[in-house]
Here is the input.
Amino acid sequence: MNFHVMTLFPEMIINGMNTSITGRAMEKGLITVNAVNIRDFTKNKHLKVDDYPYGGGAGLVMQAEPVYLAYESIEKKLSKKPRVIFVTPCGKTFNQTMAEEFSKEEELVILCGHYEGIDERVLEMIVTDQVSIGDYVLTGGELPAMVMMDCIARLVPGVLHNDVSAEFESFHENLLEYPQYTRPEEFMGKSVPEILLSGHHANVEKWRREQSLIRTAKYRPDLLEKAELTDKEKEWLVQNLKKS
Ligand code: ADE
Here is the structure.
């Protein structure tokens, strides 16, 4: 998977992605991160990339030309037109299903905005997807771009050590993940649930499924509506949600 990030702060992208699991994935060549500085494509001597909005209003708008030229510099090296994601609070909210879809692409271009936005004309020309990471406003698109790349990169084969873990984590089948415990058996008077020490695999699986149901019902009832539960599980949940 090759990420191409169009940004005014390339060092932020490289420093962020160079660390931890994504950093190791870059070392192994499983992912590459090409941060393209939009400012390198200005033609004025002051290296200005923004200007006042037509019609008035607060803030500055990123100009179309440097963004277009930065895109062109990426596109001309690729064999087909890539998917271009513009990260913006106005986009469709990012989720695990979108991450899975994006992870199938060989090349992914991400455009980060700053100031009050980007001239709409260049967005119409190059952008294929507009994506938000949630209903709040950040100062720029770099953090959202990194959130998305982190999420997409871990779905690339080989990036995670155990490929099975992606099947058992939160949002799989619209359920949140069950609670996890590790040694010691007792911590400040709090014990690990007995069942996890029993070695009885089927009972452990049943307990984990029940914990997932309870958690999802408590914290994400909207997800639970989309999850597939047996009649028995629905009944169990009604009985046990009150107790938890
Ligand atoms: N840029 C600023 N805020 C954002 C958000 N919530 N998601 C994506 N891009 C953004």
User: Anything to note?
Assistant: Residues 87-89, 132-134, 136-138, 141, 144 surround adenine (CB under 6 Å). The first helix runs from residue 10 to 17. The chain has nine helices and nine strands. Residues 89 and 132 are 5 Å apart (CA to CA).
